[in-house]
Specification:
By secondary structure, the protein is mainly alpha-helical. The protein has eight helices and two strands.
Length: 263
Amino acid sequence: MRLHFFFLLLGVSFFSNAQRGVRIGYIDMNYILENVAEYNEAKSQLDTKVRKWKSEIDALNGEVEILKTTLKNEKVLLTKELIEEREEDIYFKEKEITEYQLKRFGASGDLIKQKQRLIQPIQDQVFNSVQEIAKLKKYDFILDKSGDAVMLYSADRYDISDLVLRKITRSAQRKQIQGKREKRALEAEEDNSIEVDKELQERRAAAEAKIAERERIIKEKRAERERLREEKIKEYEERRNKLLEARKRKRDSILAIRKKNSK
């Protein structure tokens, strides 16, 4: 329903802005986050904690399984009261495990809180960078390719993921720079790079296409040379075999004549 409403708004905007033209770009949030060092570091910290929590839960479940196995093996030797007491212990331990799982992985558990603490600031950086680029480049819409809005086709020239990633990287660099001259130089470079980046990307894409085409031609020529070489080898082998067969026939003929004359 949310997607239908989104595309309805998108269609209305297209209609209302048809005369001036609508500028649309898109990002791949997963691609951006995977290339941000702070995000990978935060994710690594979170993964370490998750593994630790799961290991603790597995250990607790192992203890419960031992209690169940022991009770099963000793049940015939125990009184009804002792059996009920042990079953109650097992019940409370299982309840503790469930509560611990909710504490760590529940809807308001530690995992969600840690994600918000570690990852949310980085996601906010991405959103802020997207807004700045959208205002500067006068985009009407910027979609997230990895989000709910399913994109059946997206041309690379509308992908601004690298622009966002570069802006985040330069923002981090700016925080580390102390001198005013270096800061001004970096800001000037940022202002120019937004427009230049697309041109550089197009040049890079064209250069890569040329390299790919050149490699294709070289590969085809190499394959053609290999084919001709194999054909020559095959022709040589065929001539050689024919020559050997002719010599053998001649030798057999001479031997047959000699054998006949000797009789």
